[in-house]
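Exercise 4. Each item below gives a protein and its sequence. For each, produce the structure-token representation.

Item: UPF0235 protein ACFSJC_19040 (Thiorhodococcus fuscus).
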Amino acid sequence: MGWYRWNGADLELSLRVQPRAPKDTFDGPDPGGEHYRVRIKAPPVDGKGNEALRRFVAKSFGVAPSRIEIIGGEHARYKRLRIQEPRSFPIPIDPA
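Answer:
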């Protein structure tokens, strides 16, 4: 898959984030398979969207929010995240 890759024990995701959604959810890969769609309730204002994304991804993958790092696209809809040693897999990913 083009939307995730392993970097040692860390998982890197390429996401397309939709803010102001009715609920926080993983929505499936984009048609081209380059990004995984994520919907977040928070607006993209004053870092609220990024913080909500970090909390949602952390809870979903069973890690603390401090173990989620935005490594690209902090001010864009398309983002790259690094999850340090994820414990659970809410979306279809082959564990390392």
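Check: Helices lie at 48-61.
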